[in-house]
Amino acid sequence: MAALPPNDNLSTGYEAGLVILTTVSVAVVWLRMYTRIFVIHQPGWDDWLMFIASFMTILVIGFFTTAFHYGVGRHVEYVSTDEITAMNEWIWAGEPVYFTTLSIVKISVSVFLLRLVPTNRTGFVLILRAVIVSTICICLCVSFSYLLKCVPAPKIWTADITGRCVNAVVLPVTTWLFQGVSIITDLINLILPIVLLKDLQATQRAKLSLLCVLCLGFLTLICAVVKTCLLPGLWASEDRTWNLAGVVLWASLELCIGMMCGSVPGIRPLFVHIPIASRYRPNSNFEHTPSTGFTEHTPVCGFPHSIQTSKILAILAAAKLPVGRQKTTEQGESEEELIRMRHQGIIVATTTVKIIRSRPDFVVEVV
Predict the structure, then answer these.
(1) Mind listing the pLDDT tens digit for each residue in 275-333?
(2) If we measure between CA atoms, which residue out of 265, 279, 276, 343 comes closest to residue 303?
(3) What is the Cα–Cα distance from 192 to 124, expressed in whole angstroms?
(4) Separation between Cα atoms, residue 313 and residue 318, nearest integer Å
(5) Please, how many CA atoms are within 13 Å of residue 23, restricted to the half-sphere of its CB?
(6) Apex 271 CA angle, 266 and 275, nearest 5
(7) What are the backbone dihedrals phi and psi of residue 288, each rounded to the nearest 5 degrees, phi first?
(8) Which residues fall within 8 angstroms of residue 72, CB to CB, at 6 or more apart?
């Protein structure tokens, strides 16, 4: 007789990790929504989709943590039959919600990228639309496969109930298809911004910040690959309660990191400020070139601080800087947009204009 495995229990640590991870990711999404509604005043479909996904994520993690309570993370030899029945019931309820939530997150990222892609890049637009359609189709397919695995549904977790179940091959096939589409979607959503980044007119600091967000997206791809690699062991193992813990953990990581990756760019305007150190005298001559903020070529005297709307507009008017939108022409004129907003009496600017100072007695810096 084979020796019994040790009576280890992974549930406590895994449950704590899932709760912390979910709290952080949901907080990031809600900060994004606050920024889009109350700061930018322009919430889009991608924002609403991610906001809906945040509530569904709470539901998913609730299902998974309850399943841990009923035996996930313990060896099957130490889990009672009643606990296994309850565990299977909670996993069955959580899986379709998980697939739907993960698909909504991926669709939200794709819709966000659609807003960034220029309309003349038809190929990119078609690729993103194909990603959205394929994600919806495979999500519906795998979700219904799990929901209709057995009729009646209680036969899934109670074997002695009379009923019928689909062929054992159907569920693995649809799951593999979902994982394949999921990984391809992650690759497209990761590579496409890199291609667009090389044509982006921005400072090195702005590009580096975008690259950091892309690295976070790379972590989502890693989670999807690791989860996929764990699935064959789960299906072939008799110790399902133990092996299921790793799959649940990496699935939750993929979902939560994907939410954070898709939401971090949207909360940046919340932290944008306009520090200015200025000593103004009239008849100053300078020019501006496209960039992503106001930048001075030489060290600035004074200290940065936030100023009221009227003061910043007075400085810009005196300096003869454009306020509003200046269209780009084929001759290479600058395109810049100074978005002005009142948020607690403070102007928020999201673009940068390079200022070249021609007189030593004039200093303006906005970053």
Answers:
(1) 433 334 444 343 444 433 333 333 333 333 333 444 444 554 554 444 444 443 333 33
(2) 276
(3) 8
(4) 8
(5) 6
(6) 140
(7) -130, 150
(8) 11, 64, 87, 91, 241, 244, 245, 248
Residue with tokens 């003349």: 120
Entry field: residues in the chain: 367
Cα separation, 143 vs 141, whole angstroms: 6
Q: Please state, in angstroms and rounded to a whole number, the distance separating the CA atoms of residues 166 and 151.
A: 9
Task: For residue 105, give every residue at least 6 positions away whose Cβ sits within 8 Å of its Cβ, in sequence order, or none.
Answer: 49, 50, 53, 255, 258, 259, 262
Question: What predicted TM-score, i.e. pTM, was given to this entire model?
Answer: 0.72
Contacts of 333 (CB under 8 A, 6+ apart): 326, 327
Coil, helix or strand at residue 188? helix
Strand segments, DSSP code E, in the chain are 150-151, 164-165, 288-291, 295-296, 325-326, 336-337, 342-343, 346-347, 352-355
How many whole angstroms separate alpha carbon 256 and alpha carbon 24? 8
Mean pLDDT of 127-143: 91
- SS3 string, 53-82, reads HHHHHHHHHHHHHHHHHCCCCECHHHCCHH
CA distances from 314 to 280, 319, 323, 358 (A): 11, 8, 11, 20
